[in-house]
């Protein structure tokens, strides 16, 4: 009898976990809302979830680059990392709060930013 109960308990736990995954998948925002690139590419977007105007990143240029307009998301499907700054001229800090913060957008990543990104630097 005990063995039978353990099987039922395990089956119930698996069923609950599967149901939670299905509910989570239905509630979670779809990454496919914006079509993800299928090759090496890096760009910033003016809206969350890679929506809005796209601003390409020159992955070969390691100079500080100021974005033409604030970005709320970015994709980096390259072998390089990108340091994203919330201030102009690649200075660390939050808007109107000097400190050492910046966002590290690693290789093969997509991100939505907490604050509008204003500049960036490619790190090789």
Describe the structure.
This protein is of the alpha+beta class. 21% of the residues lie in helices and 35% in strands. The chain is built from one helix and six strands; from the N terminus they run H-E-E-E-E-E-E. It has a six-stranded antiparallel β-sheet with strand order 2-1-3-6-4-5, with no helix packed on it. Strand 1 and strand 2 (54-56) form a beta hairpin. Mean pLDDT is 81; it is low at 4-11 and 13-33.
Oligomer: single chain
| Secondary structural class | alpha+beta
- Radius of gyration (Å): 21 Å
Q: In angstroms, what separates the terminal alpha carbons?
A: 62 Å
> How big a fraction of the residues is strand?
35-45%
Which characteristics define this entry?
21% helix; alpha+beta; six-stranded antiparallel sheet; 124 residues; 1 helix; single chain
SSE diagram, text form:
Blueprint: H1 2-27, E1 41-45, E2 54-56, E3 65-77, E4 81-85, E5 103-105, E6 109-123
Antiparallel strand pairs: 1-2, 1-3, 3-6, 4-5, 4-6
């Amino acid at each position: 009898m005990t063995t039978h109960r353990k099987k039922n308990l395990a089956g119930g736990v698996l069923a609950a976990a599967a149901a939670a995954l299905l509910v989570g998948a239905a509630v979670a925002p779809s990454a496919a809302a914006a079509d993800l690139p299928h090759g090496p590419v890096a760009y910033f977007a003016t809206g969350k979830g890679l929506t809005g105007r796209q601003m390409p990143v020159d992955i070969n240029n390691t100079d500080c680059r100021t974005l033409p307009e604030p970005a709320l998301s970015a994709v980096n499907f390259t072998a390089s990392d990108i340091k994203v700054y919330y201030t102009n001229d690649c200075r660390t800090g939050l808007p109107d709060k000097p400190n050492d913060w910046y966002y590290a957008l690693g290789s093969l990543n997509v991100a939505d930013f907490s604050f509008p990104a204003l500049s960036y630097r490619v790190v090789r």
